[in-house]
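In this section we walk through a basic example: taking a raw amino acid sequence and producing a predicted 3D structure, encoded as discrete structure tokens. The instruction is simple. Fold the sequence below.
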Amino acid sequence: EVQLVESGGGLVQAGGSLRLSCAASGFTFDDYAIAWFRQAPGKEREGVSCISDGGLTTFYATSVKGRFTMSNDNAKNTMYLLINSLKPEDTAVYYCAAEAHYHCSGYGPYLDGTDFNSWGQGTQVTVSS
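The resulting token sequence is shown next.
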């Protein structure tokens, strides 16, 4: 069974950094792509980043380009999202999602959440100004 558990959210001041974790079980990153999405109150869900199955390519939304970085620790089966230069508009619940044999790469305006079938419960990130 595919399971994802996010952690690392919290309250942080604007300009600070935060590293979110997505602990995965039931699969390996060789076979599954992992993506991060976020949803702010009253707004639609936004796909912000993705690493393809096998970890060779990444995708970042243009809205977060240069500030968000994904990385993984295969030994811990954990994916990370490092967020630098946090802004109040980054305030949202952040979710990780997984999908088998999914390719993502480059930069673009969004990532389609309907492509992903396994989701974590989310972790809250709040950025104060």
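Looking at the output, two observations stand out. The mean pLDDT is 95. DSSP finds no helices and twelve strands in the chain. In the next section we compare this with other chains.
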